[in-house]
Structure formats: C-alpha cells, structure tokens
Amino acid sequence: MRLPNAAVGDAQTSGFGWDVLTDLVDVGSRMAGQAGEREGAEVVRDAFERAGARSARIEEFEIPGWWRGESSLSIHEPHERVHDGQQDVLALPGCPAGEATGRVVDVGDGTYEEFEAKAEELDGAIAMASSATPESVDRWIHRMEKYVNAADHGAVAFVFRNHLDGSLPPTGEVGYHERPGPIPAIGVSCEVGKRLARYAEEGCEATVSVECRNEAATSVNVESEVGPDTDEHVLVTAHVDAHDIADGANDNGAGSALVAEVARLLARDDVDLDTRVRLVTFGSEEIGLWGAYRCAETTALDDTKCVVNLDGACSSRNLRVGTNGFEEMGAVFEAVTDDLDASLSTDDTISPHGDQWAFVQEGVPAVMTSTTSEQSGRGWGHTHADTLDKLDSRDLRDVAVQVAEAVARFASADVETPGRTRTEMRDAIDEGYEQELRMGGRWPYADLE
C-alpha cells in the first residue's frame, strides 16, 4: 500500500514529532537504568497515546547499570598538567573505578597493526587511541576493540581521544558483555589528545583516575501498536536512552520521536494496513543493546516480518540504510526514495552495532536507518554537543514521511521480506566483525560450533 496524500501533507505540516523530541531533550540525562531514562520512556509512552496507537505500555527489565563519577588525567612528565571535570575528561561506561599511572603510548587510530607495532611498549603503560578509523581499513573499528586490545597488551589504562576538533571529550561503553571491563578508561578531546601525543614522543608519564559505580539497575522498553491484530508484525524501533553528558538529541532522541510520529501517521483513519505494526523504543542501547535483546527474547521471531531500526536519523533529510544483506528491504527503501525524489545511500555490511543486531543475529530481516552528514564518524554524537540546536524540524518531517511510507509497504501483504537461518547469518558475517564480537565476549553462535 501507499500512504495517502493527506497523510504526507499531515506529516509535512505537523509539529508532533519535533514536540516529542523537544520533550525528550528537556528531560536531561537519559542514562540507561537511571531516572532520566524512565522519564524519557514516559514521554514516549504518552506520545504513543496521543498518536492514537493502542496498548501503550512500559516494560521493565534488569541490566548491569553504570554511574559516572569524577575522572581526571594528570600529566607528570614532560610537563605537569591536570585535566579534570566532565568538560575535559569522561569515563567510558562499563569500565571499572580505579587509578593507574604509567607512560603514555600513542597507538594512533588503534588498528590491530598499530597495537602490534607498539606491543613491547604497552605492558604497564597507558594506551591512547583515536576515535578515527583510517580509510585503509574496510570497516569501522569500534572503541571496544581498541580498549580490549589495550588491556590484552598489558596496558593499565586506556585513553580514547576524539579525532574531531572542538574540545569535546567522547564517551561510549567499552563493550565487555561481562562488566566491568578490566582497566579504567577515559575519553579526552582532540586537543588534549594531540597534546598528549606530542608529549608521548618526548616520554610522557601520566595518571588516569576514574570514579564510577557498576551496579544492577532497572531499564525500560516502551511499546505500542497500530494496524490489524495479526500475529505477523513489522517492528519499528529506536532507543530512548542517551549518554548522561548531553541531550542525546540525534542519538537518539530523534529516533524515538520518529517512531512516535510514524505511529501517528499509520494510526490515521485513512491508512489501511494489512499487518500489525509494533512500535518499540528500547532502553539501554548505549551500554550493550539490553533493551533490544530483551525484546528479541520475548518476541515470536517467526512472526516478525522485518525490523526498521532508527538511530541517528536527523542529521539531514538524506536517508542511509544499512541492509545487513537483506536486499528485499533495501529495495523497498529504494522504491520509496525514488517515488519521493529523495536521497538514499545503502550499505549491505552485516553490522553488530545498533539495536537491529539483536534480530539480525537470529536471521530476522532488519535494517539500521539513519541519515548522512558531512561530519566524520559520530560527529556530535557521544559528546556534550549532541543538542537540539544541531537539528532541523524540516529534516525530521522529511525522514518521517520516508520511514512511514517504507513501513506501510513492509506491512503490505504484497511485500515479502525473507529471513535467513542463524547458520547463514554466522557464515555471512565479515571476519573483522566476528573478531570484534569474540573479543568482547558477544559472539552469539557458540552453540553452532
């Protein structure tokens, strides 16, 4: 089916989605398992109800929570300097509390080759790696790999430096499934990192200090639905949690607002869906995809026709869809953007990053839907600067139209989205991502070996 013209016009003139996004960023911190995440979930639940979706509800589940304290980086040689306070230094979620002193070893972008080249220097040292992935590498190297490589090479602490200018230290979880990880870890700005790299060439000694708590916590998913009450369903998802150091506007308040806006458009009386559409915002994506895994474990996956996951989808109005090799889903988005004269870029790499992975690993057709921007890497994401002023309500409206149109087509009985077996998924994963998943204890196919 197609969205009626009246629904498209409604989307282009409505302020509903932007109002939801504004309410989310005004919550403040939405850190996983903490009070702000729950408040953000309540914003989404109330938005689902106003949108006309049915059975809006919040589901609780337990997670390994993490609370940020004060962190610092003290340089002793060759020049004394102390960086403290969250504008200078941010601990990385999932790391342990602790203090470590050692010489600083700069491993560049933190590729496997760079770690091996500095292997003899890293034992007992503080390893520092950039957030960049060099163009010579054919896949993104996640901070978790750099952290694990640092620990495996005997480093006593890890420093993650932003590769983008702007005095913005990055945060982001360190990726161990079993928490906490083995060594303290902090993020520092590009400028601090470059200074530290310059000092490291002269012989630099520093101390990394992290205060944090690793304790059990309660996280939440929010769910609602539209369309007929069929067993088969299409999932439209995003994560409502965000790191505690910023508004989490694009990552991922915008995604949650878009799910609510898609619910509103599909709940209109003039939209006739063949298949039920479930709308879910997950908790705890930023610290290990816990909400997505909870949903996957409690969902009849044989009845899940496909998953459209929204994450970082308001940096422009130009869609980017990671198809994870599910070509039929990519073809639907191509048809939608062609019909709407809109831009689309696609990637078929099977990626374990994003909530869709909890379904992809089981062979359920699922895509990661975001937008492109001119910034490298995460851009403002995972920094203090991921704020509402970076986004544009017109982009949100355009993306909402494109996504709602695609979901309406996925919900049509005429559109097929064949899945794969777990064995097929295992065999299709790039060796590099397999290596990453094994390093973090997250390889999901041990039962097939």
TrEMBL record:
Coiled coil: none annotated. InterPro entries: CPQ, PA_dom_sf, PA_domain, Peptidase_M28. GO terms for molecular function: carboxypeptidase activity; metal ion binding; metallopeptidase activity. Keywords: Carboxypeptidase, Endoplasmic reticulum, Glycoprotein, Golgi apparatus, Hydrolase, Lysosome, Metal-binding, Metalloprotease, Protease, Secreted, Signal, Zinc, Zymogen. The keyword Protease applies. Residues 101-196 form the PA domain. It is found in: Endoplasmic reticulum; Golgi apparatus; Lysosome; Secreted. Residues 224-406 form the Peptidase M28 domain. Gene3D superfamilies: 3.50.30.30, Zn peptidases. Transmembrane segments: none annotated. GO terms for biological process: proteolysis. It comes from the Archaea. GO terms for cellular component: extracellular region; lysosome. Homodimer. The monomeric form is inactive while the homodimer is active. This is Carboxypeptidase Q. It comes from Halobaculum halobium. The lineage of its organism: Archaea, Methanobacteriati, Methanobacteriota, Stenosarchaea group, Halobacteria.
